[in-house]
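Today's session is about reading a structure prediction critically. Students often jump straight to the picture, but the first step is always the sequence itself: look for stretches that repeat, for charged clusters, for runs of hydrophobic residues. Only then move on to the predicted structure, which in these notes is written as discrete structure tokens rather than atom positions. Here is the chain we will use throughout the hour.
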Amino acid sequence: MKAPNVAFRHAVIVTAAGSSSRFNAGFMKSRLDSGSVKKEFLSFEGLPVLARAVKPFLDVPGLSVVVVTYKAGCLEETRSSLESLVPLLDGAGVPLHFVEGGDTRQSSVFNALSFLKRLWDVGAGFDLVSIHDGARPFVSKDVVLACLDAASVCGGAAPCVPVSDTLVKVSEGFFSERLDRAGVCGVQTPQTFRFPDIYEAHVKARDLVIGVGSVFTDDTQIFMEFGGRVAAVAGNPKNTKITYRNDLEGGV
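Below is the predicted structure for this chain, in token form.
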């Protein structure tokens, strides 16, 4: 897919408000370890995971604003993890904002989108927004560009990687059904959308959650639920999300 038209500008939301319960599960803490750690703050090859997740976006033309969500009580740690990027952001004239997250990923992204909507209403110049996991530090500039390009045409886009493993359903501990993997892909981030279309979809999703108590787990799901189309962009198998400690391969 060709590089995007740099005439449009874009924002990025990087999520770092979630828990790291699976990452910390079963980890035996030493006397010096006072409690659970946030995986986004751990160092990997000289940079915090969160900084590595943000940095590729700084190389993409047209970046207008960066918004990072943080877990309540973790603002200073979140700021500290991105200190190394501040000179780059300042040099490019790209503001960095921090928004407190909610109890779910959906509510955290909604908080960030609401913040961007306030900027958009007073004339901030961006047409698209990418929503990226702060625990996904291996994203490349090329994937970001491809998603921006596709979303500018289709309204929404996300990187996907075809599933190569055999798929089965498991019932009561036993294989119960084999599933056809043809056309089945794993979805990565950044998930990229026209703004404010994704904001309006999130408003409707929030009202639905309040009404019936269901929760969406994915921004593409929200966008499609309310009439949007999402283009499948070729992802990169290396663009994995840090979920367990061995995902960092000794980098901590």
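Discussion point for the tutorial: The chain has one domain: 10-28+35-248.
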